[in-house]
Amino acid sequence: MRGGSNVTPALAAEHGLTAEEFDRAVAILGRTPNLTELGIFAAMWSEHCSYKSSKVWLKTLPTTGPRVICGPGENAGVIDIGDGDAVVFKIESHNHPSFIEPYQGAATGVGGILRDVFTMGARPIAILDSLRFGSPDHPRTRHLVSGVVSGIGGYGNCVGVPTVGGECEFHPAYDGNILVNAMCVGIARADRIFYSAAAGPGNPVIYVGAKTGRDGIHGATMASAEFSADAGEKRPTVQVGDPFTEKLLIEACLELMEGEAIVAIQDMGAAGLTSSAVEMASKGGLGIELDLDKVPLRETGMSAYEIMLSESQERMLMILRPGSEADARRIFAKWELDFAVIGRVTETGRLVLRMNGDIAADIPVEPLVTAAPVYQRPWRRRRPEPEIDPGSLPDRDLFECLQRLLASPTLASKCWIWEQYDHLVMGNTVRRPGGDAAVVRLSAGGKALALATDCTPRYCRADPVRGGAQAVAESWRNLTAVGAEPLALTDNMNFGNPERPEIMGEFVGAIEGMREACLALDYPVVSGNVSLYNETNGRAILPTPVIGGVGLVANVRSAVDLALKRDGDTLILIGETRGHLGCSLYLCELEGSETGPPPPVDLSTERRNGDFVRNMIRAGHVAACHDLSDGGLLVAVAEMAMAGGRGVVLDAPPPDLLRNAYLFGEDQARYIVETADPGTVLEAARAAGVAAYAIGAVGGVALTLTGAGAISVDALRAANEAWLPDYMAQI
Amino acid sequence: MKAVVVIFPGSNRERDICAALSLVTSHEPTRVWHRDTALPESDLIVLPGGFAYGDYLRCGAMAAHSPVMREVRDQAAKGTPVLGICNGFQILTEAGMLPGALLPNRSLRFTCRDVHLRVENNQTIFTCGYEASQVLRVPVAHHDGNYTADPDTLERLEGRGLVAFRYCELGGGLTEAGNFNGAARAIAGIFNDSRTVLGLMPHLENAVDPLLGSTDGRAFFEGLVGALQ
Question: In this complex, do B13 and A244 lie within 8 Å of one another by their Cβ atoms?
Fold first, then answer.
């Protein structure tokens, strides 16, 4: 290595390393790192790669269970669904890039999560996207919605993986930091899962996929003469996606995975070649030596620093069995992708980079990973919100309230969005977007997966513990509502600056609530992603722990949706209604207030009610089912009516509750089921100790509330469907 | 019946068409890689949906010059039926095997949804499973499906009964709203002069199973297989 280094603590600080962290790096090396090494330390010890603020709390989440094959720590989580099949899935954020450049930011978010899944040997079969935008009135919002949606569609449609679900909400807290969380689900043979741990000293290290360019280099925007001879040229930090190359990469990797050539494989995501090489070496307890002159480059004159920190997309790193290179090369040649042997596995335990005859970096891998900083950041709980007395609220016309809620940005139909996603390719989409959960068929034998993403951020802000538990419970409920057995989840923890105790308190609280719910519902976390520092000018987003849930439908023919099926059927409300309006959408949309505590989450009731509903669905007693969430009972009934194109006659509300609290309260653990056999369902509920009430009947063309009047289902649908297209059509 | 499905880099609905054909024929179609210059003997050649070559440059433009297309053209000239679906339709127009071109949808957005189609000519091997003027409900999933051609070509297509399907309303009426992507004369699919080559945008192959919402595509494949046996 060339002697001397002009790296200073100030330069380290520009890379985001604290003085203490820089000292630690110097101690590990026994000398001052050179620029390339500094870049590697900074990338590996960044919040994104090291989880230094979140790690101690993430460890408290339950991650095991009888079905868990691989929990957090690999590219994606893996669960066993029987018959030798495994589901591989993960959710990941691309928040910041999507705010800067919505199309490419969202597109590469999809590309990255697809790679996490097929890296493990799975064919991706579904994508979901959980989106949060600022206020519709904010001048950038329309542009961001348009760009993000077309970016997701542009990528997912081209690679040919259906985008089957997700969510989209608006709130001024996201004006300066939108959230784009993409989830991918794949299917693999349980005994053919590929991992990233390097093995076999001497084995070749292979680079495949697209060429490396200067896109996405960390710190490229602060580039100065010290970084590059070409200082005047500032490259965008947002990566550019190429879904066509990704499609080829999927096919080539899966073809290679049919054989025995691969020892280990890792995609190049955040921090590119750096994190993939370091993680593979670290997990295997080995070293890796790379010859950077052999890395396929898209541009000339790239430095070691730039090559190691580029986040060019559609690239993978593999370790192959010796002698298998020729066969592997043939497969990648067929798919017209780059394939280069760029190094080998060593026993030294060091990451050694060579370039132009010099050693460009030489870092011991083990301390780079294990000595990474971990912080116990101070945190503070939020003061609980006082309860809301429904009697203190004005008495509003319920049908007007219903129309306004259905036309609110939160509840308005998102058809305008999902029509831009190919949700049908692969020919297995049994339940399309728009319901509680998407259902994707796995085999002619009748197995299917139920998939959903959920979070209610306004609950999480008011009470992070309750909000965290509610997000998990609602996910579990949405999967249950189509008849699935919820198996496991992936979480995307989107929060503000963890160095502020109140934000760290939101994180800690949400994890605590999630943990309780995961344990009570036997619903482990198998993968996830943390996105912190989502704030602008000291204003943080709402705490948004998005839960991506996966459930198993044993027989797809027994799955149900929310559309009402037959006139004359009875609607049965499962679960107790107490009229909880605190933190409700009703309060938010009608009273313009985001006060009050979120509804309590009773996890044992949640479990009992959900298990009961699932059993009723499987026994064939349920024609349609919908969970109750934002907007409460009347919104749920309206959504069922709109989906089925049928009216409903609801009985008068119980006398002991205020009418609008009963109709719009957001008490948890509730479902509505449509049944032709109310006697059986009510009797079974009584036997199971589940609260169940017949609340009305299907029929007609209007939603009628006995004693209060009626509104036509067409009018409701018009209100619900018009908002988003009208909003997006404005200039 | 032996069917061949041509796979281009970027094809992505080959599984869907193979599943539909297998369902009706009980035979898995043969998949042929686009670099192959010889096609196996077959009763039907399918160009599936997807984004061949990423649809960079122009939808279907590069695939139209792929080595296998020479062979597809030769076989078609000898009378082997060719079916191009969505991206396959775009490739057939780019290859000059069907007239006209597919422009971006009127909305300028990718659109995936169910639409209504009216059968315009059921006197062909492809459409003989349908009644005349039958209305189908089937999915579309494309960004560039807005069919266009010069007025003479359109007149010729109409005059010779070469329009296979049109976008329509539920009751079969031709309206502005029913013609969701703005195609000239609401054209969703066309035949060549001998009616042995069909290009269409909608995905009939995604409408063969009641679980997935519609079975209106099934008669298409049953009719086609019946005609070719």
Answer: no
**Closest residue in B to A147 (Cα–Cα):** B109
Check residue A238 and give its pLDDT. 72
Q: Which two tokens stand for residue A212?
A: 């490396």
Confidence (pLDDT) at A253:
97
Contact residues on chain A for B49, CB-CB shorter than 8 A: 425
Residues of B annotated as part of the active site: 86, 203, 205
Surface of B (21-80) touching A: CB under 8 A: 33, 49-51, 53-56
Whole-angstrom Cα distance, residue A613 to residue A621? 10
CA A269-A270-A271 angle, to 5 degrees, is 110
Query: What's the whole-model pTM score?
Result: 0.95
Which residue, among A140, A179, A138, has the nearest Cα to A540 in the 3D structure?
A179
Please give the Cα distance from B174 to B97 (Å, whole number). Answer: 27
State the ipTM, two decimals. 0.96
pLDDT tens, residue by residue, A534-554: 998 889 999 999 999 999 999
Axis crossing angle, helix A501-520 with helix A603-618, rounded to the nearest 10: 50
Q: In chain A, which stretches have pLDDT less than 70? A: 1-4, 218-237
- Name the minimum distance, in Å, from the CA of B159 to any CA of chain A: 35
> Which residue in A160, A420, A556 is closest to B50 by CB distance?
A160
What distances in angstroms separate CA A360 from CA A229, A296, A304, A364, B8, one per listed residue? 17, 17, 7, 14, 41
Q: Which residues in A lie closer than 8 A to residue B33 (C-beta atoms)?
A: 334
Structure confidence at residue A236 (pLDDT): 57
Bridge partners, residue A205, by sequence: A319, A343
Q: What is the pLDDT of residue A713?
A: 98
Task: Say yes or no: B144 contacts chain A, CB-CB below 8 A.
Answer: no
**Which one of A159, A247, A422 has the shortest CB-CB distance to B141?**
A422
The model's pLDDT over A455-505, given as tens digits with 9 standing for 90+, comes to 999 999 999 999 999 999 999 999 999 999 999 999 999 999 999 999 999
